[in-house]
Amino acid sequence: MTKSDVLIVGSGAAGAAAAWSLSRNGLKVTCLEQGRWIEKSEYSHGQSDYELARQSEFHKDPNVRRWPEDYPINVSGTPIRPLMMNAVGGSTVHWSGHFPRMRPSDFRVRTLDGIADDWPLTYWDLEPFYELNDSMIGVSGLAGDPGNPPRGVRQTPPLGFDVACEAYFRGLDKLGWHWWPSDNALISEVFGHDRSACNGCGPCDIGCPTASMSSAHVTYWPMAMGNGVDLITHARVEEVTVDENGSARGVVFRDEAGVRREHTARVVIVAANGIGTPRLLLNSVSSQFPKGLANHSGLVGTHLMFHPVGFVTGVFDEPLDAQRGPLGGLMNCQEFYETDLSRGFVRGFELQLSRSVGPLTTANGGLSGVPVAWGAGHHRALGKIYRHAITITVMGEDLPEEINRVTIDPQLTDADGTPAPLVRYRLGANSKKMMPFAIARAQELCEAAGAVEVLVDPLVQDSGWHLMGTCRMGNDPERSVVNQWGCSHECRNLFVIDGSVFTTSGAVNPTSTIQAIALRCADWVSQNFQDLYA
Amino acid sequence: MSERLFNAEQLALLTKVQSQLIPAENDMPAAGSVGCASIVHEFLREHEELYELVLRALDAIEKSTGDASFIQLTSEEQIEILRFVEKSAPEAFAELVRQTYNAYYTRPEIQAKLGIHGPPQPDGFEFPSFDVSRLDRVKARGKLWRDA
To answer: In chain B, which residues have their Cβ closer than 8 Å to the Cβ of A384?
Structure first.
């Protein structure tokens, strides 16, 4: 048995940021990661069959990828599949890097719009940590967006825009809608150690061989390990243990050889994502916590939010070659972000310019969800869209509902026999009104941009990247799992700092907010460390 | 070496089927003429579940031809059989199509015909830098977010 000041479960966006922050304040930090380091040599971008990685070793769905370190997820009860990467850096190992911040109104939806709950913190509480996070990892973009609060100069300039982007800019200007170059966790100039500027190769979603993506394994982890953090890979945590006083004692995990070990710590931080974190807490049953750790309210696992996503793809006569260049949201349009009740729903959505994919992914239906037809005419059908299409990602705010939840599957287990999660989710009434409106706006944009045909996937099944809400943050212990510092209402040395703590989802990609929350919570743990275990 | 192997007849059938799935057109060759059957064969050796699916599709195709061999049918008859199997064994047939697309569109000679001259790395692609004057209209609208 070994002991640390702070033990972190999970090395993804949140765990990495917290490990760096805590260690720079002199705390002895250990992080347990069930996955491993992904080596540069594993990326397929230098091979002609690089697109196959999306279907196999770098598949975003752990149920398909099935690495030894992945755990199965029962998804029979959800139209959106939860996606994740179990590796050092977590899901930032392969993502789009789209890095918007939530807006101030996102934290006050009860006050402003009369729905869901307000967060126990404000945008302005998080703002210094958004700034700190950006400065640590490197963000490309442009300050001055009138759609968002002011922010500091971005670490690198906006990524380059080509003829494909220009088509949509013309459309947006024609419609008079808001747009702005997105903040991206993708550097356009050299930043940091051993990282190159993005060279626009394209398939960001299967990893970044140039380390241009500001992923946790190339940003925070080298710094955290330089501070002395002990990162243990292939360490699969089974439960968080408690002492006789009901305080977190540590964790039991299986090491690479499958041997069960215990690691104790004065403070335990869980950062295993919006599925893995409730799974771990619900599996941590004891006499003091018979419903699972930190689950007196019965809310651990509830209020799961994904962000409903649609793809709307404009097909143009002229070749755009949008398969070249960074895949993720180079531009965002937040014209419809804030509530306007005349639309028939509350809250709003974002339109992201998401470029395109190579011929194989195009043929297999990567743009519209439907493969290109086989048989006579196949080449004409493919040629019509390949190099000629560019996709708008439509992403709506997902309101928290208690019935959308992660529980423990009564039968399914991982390879070590630890019970696996069961996800039940259905699209809420507000989303059902919002998404058709949002899709129609994206179609309108495509047409204004000059598209001759528009392909629509109204609800993308493989879009559950954003795992939020399952250990929600709040002031009321009966209506939330953790407080504004990520600290459990029931167990003062137990913290949750990942997307699980989101009270509401906003309508933007969550990683910058996840990392800002992690830094803020870690800062508070450092300042109050002595009081947490005494 | 895995036991999961297509025999010569199955490989011949797969080749013929693939040439119906992606037939030749203009300067694009048929899938069956560029070695896609062998590529699929090699790939499936290591993927048991996918192998079973593709095998099921091939079996369904063979069984749908009655006493005749698929290879001996006319092109129109072959297409009719494939349409039938697409409906009667949709999951297996979809996998057969996906594996064929996978093999075809990862061939460098096919990619070259589509204008792709090498993988994305190490060269990447150059992009013009962003012209910030493009944002003048948006800036002129002023603040668009709600404070809270």
So the answer is: none
Q: What is the DSSP letter of A332?
A: E
Three-state DSSP class for B49?
Answer: helix
Task: Please name the residues between 51 and 110 in chain B that touch chain A, using a CB distance below 8 Å.
Answer: 79, 82, 94, 97-98, 100-102, 104-108, 110
pLDDT in tens, A99-132: 999 999 999 999 999 999 999 999 999 999 999 9
Asked if A369 reaches chain B (Cβ–Cβ under 8 Å), the answer is no
Number of domains in chain B: 1
What residue in B sits closest to A118 (Cα-Cα)?
B148
Minimum-distance CB partner of A386 among B25, B114, B145: B114
Per DSSP, what are the bridge partners of residue A180?
A: A332
Residue B67 lies in a domain: yes
Cis peptide before A128 (omega within 30 of 0): no
Query: Domain limits of chain A?
Result: 2-34+53-68+83-533
> Which listed CATH number (3.40.50.12160, 3.50.50.60, 1.10.10.10, 3.30.260.10) goes with A2-34+53-68+83-533?
3.50.50.60
Q: Give yes or no for B137 touching A (CB within 8 A).
A: yes
Q: Are A156 and A214 in contact (CB under 8 A)?
A: no
- Residue in A145, A320, A340, A374 to test binding to B, most B beta-carbons within 10 Å: A374
B1 pLDDT exceeds 70? no
Is the CB of B138 inside 8 Å of chain A's CB atoms?
yes
For residue B68, give how far its alpha carbon lies from the nearest alpha carbon of chain A (Å). Answer: 22
**ipTM value greater than 0.85:** yes
Where b means 16+ CB within 10 Å and e means fewer, A403-431 reads ebbbbbbeeeebeeebbbbbbbbebbebb
Q: What is the pLDDT of residues B39-79, one digit of tens each?
A: 999 999 988 899 999 999 999 999 999 889 999 999 999 99
Q: Name the residue in chain A with its Cα closest to that of B125.
A: A200
| Per-residue pLDDT tens digits for A53-68 | 999 888 999 999 999 9
- Structure token pair of residue A187: 């550097």
- CB of A379 within 8 Å of a chain B CB? The answer is yes
Is A374 close to B147, i.e. CB distance below 8 A? no
pLDDT of residue A330: 84
- Look at A260-274, A493-507, B124-138 and tell me which has the smallest mean pLDDT: B124-138
Please indicate, yes or no, if residue B134 is contained in any of the structural domains: no
B122 in A contact zone (CB under 8 Å):
yes
By CB neighbour count within 10 A (0-12 exposed, 13-18 middle, 19+ buried), where does A436 fall? middle
- Write out the residue range of the structural domain in which residue B72 sits: 8-117
For residue B7, name the pLDDT band (cuts at 50, 70, 90): very high
